[in-house]
Protein backbone atom coordinates (compact mmCIF):
# COMPACT_ATOMS: atom_id res chain seq x y z
CA UNK A 1 0.00 0.00 0.00
CA UNK A 2 1.04 3.57 -0.56
CA UNK A 3 -0.33 7.12 -0.50
CA UNK A 4 -0.66 8.62 -3.96
CA UNK A 5 -0.74 12.41 -4.09
CA UNK A 6 -1.88 13.71 -7.48
CA UNK A 7 -2.75 17.24 -8.57
CA UNK A 8 -4.70 18.31 -11.61
CA UNK A 9 -4.69 21.80 -13.12
CA UNK A 10 -7.47 23.14 -15.28
CA UNK A 11 -8.83 26.40 -16.59
CA UNK A 12 -12.41 27.41 -15.87
CA UNK A 13 -14.78 28.84 -18.49
CA UNK A 14 -13.99 32.29 -17.05
CA UNK A 15 -10.25 31.81 -17.70
CA UNK A 16 -9.26 31.20 -14.06
CA UNK A 17 -6.59 28.55 -13.49
CA UNK A 18 -7.39 26.13 -10.65
CA UNK A 19 -5.63 23.17 -9.09
CA UNK A 20 -7.33 20.24 -7.41
CA UNK A 21 -5.46 17.90 -5.13
CA UNK A 22 -6.38 14.25 -4.84
CA UNK A 23 -4.80 12.07 -2.15
CA UNK A 24 -5.56 8.37 -2.47
CA UNK A 25 -4.65 5.26 -0.51
CA UNK A 26 -3.69 2.67 -3.11
CA UNK A 27 -2.60 -0.94 -3.33
CA UNK A 28 -0.19 -2.05 -6.05
CA UNK A 29 -0.43 -5.57 -7.44
CA UNK A 30 0.33 -7.60 -10.56
CA UNK A 31 -2.29 -9.52 -12.50
CA UNK A 32 -1.89 -13.12 -13.73
CA UNK A 33 0.10 -11.92 -16.75
CA UNK A 34 2.51 -9.94 -14.55
CA UNK A 35 1.13 -6.57 -15.56
CA UNK A 36 1.21 -3.96 -12.68
CA UNK A 37 -2.06 -2.36 -11.51
CA UNK A 38 -3.19 0.05 -8.78
CA UNK A 39 -6.37 -0.42 -6.79
CA UNK A 40 -7.77 2.63 -4.95
CA UNK A 41 -8.71 1.70 -1.39
CA UNK A 42 -9.71 5.12 -0.02
CA UNK A 43 -9.87 8.81 -0.88
CA UNK A 44 -7.85 10.68 1.77
CA UNK A 45 -8.30 14.17 0.29
CA UNK A 46 -10.55 15.38 3.12
CA UNK A 47 -8.04 14.44 5.85
CA UNK A 48 -5.72 17.04 7.42
CA UNK A 49 -2.14 17.03 6.05
CA UNK A 50 -0.76 15.91 9.45
CA UNK A 51 -2.93 12.79 9.39
CA UNK A 52 -1.86 11.94 5.86
CA UNK A 53 1.80 12.32 6.88
CA UNK A 54 1.29 9.97 9.84
CA UNK A 55 -0.29 7.41 7.51
CA UNK A 56 2.64 7.74 5.07
CA UNK A 57 5.18 7.16 7.86
CA UNK A 58 3.24 4.21 9.20
CA UNK A 59 3.09 2.58 5.77
CA UNK A 60 6.87 3.03 5.44
CA UNK A 61 7.36 1.05 8.65
CA UNK A 62 7.90 3.83 11.17
CA UNK A 63 6.80 2.94 14.71
CA UNK A 64 4.49 5.65 16.00
CA UNK A 65 3.42 5.84 19.63
CA UNK A 66 0.99 8.09 21.42
CA UNK A 67 2.84 10.77 23.39
CA UNK A 68 0.96 9.83 26.57
CA UNK A 69 1.89 6.15 26.14
CA UNK A 70 5.58 6.99 25.78
CA UNK A 71 5.87 8.61 29.19
CA UNK A 72 4.85 7.73 32.70
CA UNK A 73 4.04 10.45 35.21
CA UNK A 74 5.88 9.64 38.41
CA UNK A 75 4.90 12.73 40.34
CA UNK A 76 2.86 15.79 39.52
CA UNK A 77 3.08 18.90 41.65
CA UNK A 78 0.46 21.60 41.12
CA UNK A 79 1.98 24.99 40.41
CA UNK A 80 -1.05 27.00 39.38
CA UNK A 81 -1.82 28.08 42.94
CA UNK A 82 1.76 29.30 43.46
CA UNK A 83 1.70 31.20 40.16
CA UNK A 84 -1.65 32.79 41.04
CA UNK A 85 -0.37 33.80 44.50
CA UNK A 86 2.79 35.30 42.96
CA UNK A 87 0.76 37.32 40.42
CA UNK A 88 -1.63 38.60 43.09
CA UNK A 89 1.24 39.47 45.43
CA UNK A 90 2.79 41.43 42.57
CA UNK A 91 -0.45 43.35 41.99
CA UNK A 92 -0.71 44.13 45.71
CA UNK A 93 2.94 45.30 45.84
CA UNK A 94 4.00 42.91 48.60
CA UNK A 95 7.61 42.77 47.37
CA UNK A 96 7.93 46.55 47.57
CA UNK A 97 6.70 46.43 51.18
CA UNK A 98 9.64 44.16 52.00
CA UNK A 99 12.20 46.76 50.91
CA UNK A 100 14.39 47.52 47.93
CA UNK A 101 15.27 44.78 45.40
CA UNK A 102 17.89 42.49 46.94
CA UNK A 103 18.41 38.78 47.67
CA UNK A 104 17.23 39.21 51.26
CA UNK A 105 13.88 40.58 50.05
CA UNK A 106 13.39 37.55 47.79
CA UNK A 107 14.30 35.22 50.65
CA UNK A 108 11.62 36.81 52.84
CA UNK A 109 9.09 36.78 49.98
CA UNK A 110 9.16 32.97 49.44
CA UNK A 111 7.80 31.94 52.88
CA UNK A 112 5.13 34.64 52.62
CA UNK A 113 3.94 33.08 49.36
CA UNK A 114 4.04 29.60 50.89
CA UNK A 115 1.82 30.78 53.72
CA UNK A 116 -0.54 32.56 51.28
CA UNK A 117 -1.05 29.28 49.43
CA UNK A 118 -1.58 27.31 52.61
CA UNK A 119 -2.23 29.57 55.61
CA UNK A 120 -0.61 28.04 58.68
CA UNK A 121 2.04 28.69 61.30
CA UNK A 122 5.75 28.70 60.38
CA UNK A 123 6.18 25.27 61.94
CA UNK A 124 3.18 23.94 60.07
CA UNK A 125 4.62 25.31 56.81
CA UNK A 126 7.87 23.42 57.41
CA UNK A 127 5.86 20.27 58.20
CA UNK A 128 3.89 20.83 54.97
CA UNK A 129 7.16 20.96 53.02
CA UNK A 130 8.24 17.73 54.76
CA UNK A 131 4.92 15.98 54.04
CA UNK A 132 5.24 16.82 50.33
CA UNK A 133 8.69 15.20 50.22
CA UNK A 134 10.49 18.23 48.85
CA UNK A 135 14.18 18.99 48.81
CA UNK A 136 13.29 22.14 50.71
CA UNK A 137 11.79 19.99 53.45
CA UNK A 138 15.00 18.03 53.81
CA UNK A 139 17.02 21.24 54.07
CA UNK A 140 14.52 22.82 56.47
CA UNK A 141 14.71 19.83 58.79
CA UNK A 142 18.52 19.85 58.75
CA UNK A 143 18.83 23.61 59.40
CA UNK A 144 17.86 23.55 63.14
CA UNK A 145 20.24 20.64 63.78
CA UNK A 146 23.08 22.51 62.06
CA UNK A 147 22.32 25.63 64.15
CA UNK A 148 22.49 23.60 67.32
CA UNK A 149 25.67 21.78 66.22
CA UNK A 150 27.52 24.94 65.16
CA UNK A 151 26.07 27.30 67.76
CA UNK A 152 24.82 29.62 65.02
CA UNK A 153 21.92 32.04 65.31
CA UNK A 154 20.47 32.10 61.80
CA UNK A 155 20.19 29.51 59.03
CA UNK A 156 19.25 30.42 55.48
CA UNK A 157 17.76 27.65 53.35
CA UNK A 158 17.16 28.32 49.64
CA UNK A 159 16.21 26.26 46.64
CA UNK A 160 16.67 27.36 43.04
CA UNK A 161 14.09 26.23 40.48
CA UNK A 162 14.77 26.53 36.77
CA UNK A 163 17.42 29.23 37.07
CA UNK A 164 15.55 31.49 39.49
CA UNK A 165 14.78 31.73 43.18
CA UNK A 166 12.16 29.11 43.94
CA UNK A 167 11.65 29.13 47.69
CA UNK A 168 13.59 30.15 50.76
CA UNK A 169 13.36 30.22 54.53
CA UNK A 170 15.31 31.80 57.37
CA UNK A 171 15.53 29.93 60.69
CA UNK A 172 16.49 31.57 63.96
CA UNK A 173 17.79 29.64 66.93
CA UNK A 174 16.23 30.91 70.14
Overview features:
single chain, 174 residues, alpha+beta, 2 domains, three-stranded antiparallel sheet, two-stranded antiparallel ribbon, 5 strands, 40% helix
Cα-to-Cα separation, first versus last residue: 78 Å
| Helix vs. strand class | alpha+beta
Query: In angstroms, what is the radius of gyration?
Result: 32 Å
SSE pattern: EEEHHHHHHEE
What does the model show?
By secondary structure, the protein is of the alpha+beta class. It has two domains: 2-59, no CATH class; 80-172, no CATH class. The protein has six helices and five strands. It has helices spanning 49-59, 80-92, 94-97, 103-117, 122-131, 135-150; strands at residues 2-11, 17-30, 36-43, 154-161, 164-172. The strands form two sheets. A three-stranded antiparallel sheet has the order 1-2-3, covered by helices on one side. Strand 2 and strand 3 form a beta hairpin. The longest helix has 16 residues, at 135-150. The protein is elongated, with a radius of gyration of 32 Å. The N and C termini lie far apart (78 Å).
Brief digest:
With 174 residues, the chain is an alpha+beta fold. The protein has six helices and five strands, in the order E-E-E-H-H-H-H-H-H-E-E. The longest helix has 16 residues, at 135-150.
Amino acid sequence: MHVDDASRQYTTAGGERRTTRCVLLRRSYRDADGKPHNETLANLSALPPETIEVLRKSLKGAVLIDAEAGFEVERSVPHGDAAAAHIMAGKLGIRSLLGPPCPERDIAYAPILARMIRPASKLSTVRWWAANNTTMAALAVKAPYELRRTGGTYALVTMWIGGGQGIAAVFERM
